[in-house]
Write a structure and sequence with these properties.
63% helix, 86 residues, 2777_t:CDS:1, 3 helices, mainly alpha, elongated, signal
């Protein structure tokens, strides 16, 4: 399973988990956690260790792709912070 497939699966699981959630900050935290889990899985599938790769010209393309995907995922979580909290 490649990194894109793992990230897609993590995103689908996240959407399923958040479908009935209306908890504002809690939903946001769960979303951020799912993004981070996807990022670590992406790094692992590329044979990298999360947190050990620095950005720059020498960064592996897989690491850059994982970082971009994580940023997109985290940006998608922003709307959850304003969700109604019961």
């Amino acid at each position: 399973m490649n990194a894109k497939q793992q990230l897609f699966i993590a995103f689908v699981v996240l959407l399923c988990a958040l479908h009935g959630t209306h908890a504002g900050p809690i939903a946001y935290a769960v979303c951020q956690t799912a993004c981070n889990l996807g990022w670590v899985s992406c790094y692992a599938s590329a044979g990298l260790v999360a947190g050990t790769v620095t950005g720059g010209l020498g960064a592996p393309l897989a690491a850059i792709a994982c970082n971009v995907a994580q940023g997109v995922c985290m940006a998608a979580c922003v709307g959850l912070i304003a969700a109604p909290t019961p």
